[in-house]
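User: Hi! I'm working on a homework problem where we have to compare a predicted structure to a textbook description. Could you give me the structure for the chain below?
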Amino acid sequence: MAAHGGAVRRLRGQDEHHPEALSSTTLKETTWNATLIEGDVVEEVAKLKNRPGGDILKVGTGGTFSRTLLKHGLVDEYLFWLVPVIAGSGARLYDGIDTTYLTLADVVRLENGILGLTYTPKVTERA
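Assistant: Happy to help. Predicted structure tokens:
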């Protein structure tokens, strides 16, 4: 699978031994504490998940990189921020992905009304 734009990082242990991993269709090298994922993104992220060093955080939504991780079962937890604004339009985050059922794992309510909703993929295919 070709490289797609996106980055993943360790939540703890972010140092010279655990650099950010970056997937890009345009960059050929990095100039910061990052490793460029080359080749098969699915294979490389799966390897990264199996290494010790803490949880991995993928920041941002949508895009080819996010859809690739979701499609191949590489996402263990989702954190959605619900902001109390009705925008009236917008892009779908995960177009082209089969239905994925989620289980609510945690809710964080901020003073300004924003909710942090943490979900994990359901083991079964039924809602």
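For your comparison, note the following. Residues 10-14 have pLDDT under 50 and may be disordered. The radius of gyration is 16 Å. Good luck with the assignment!
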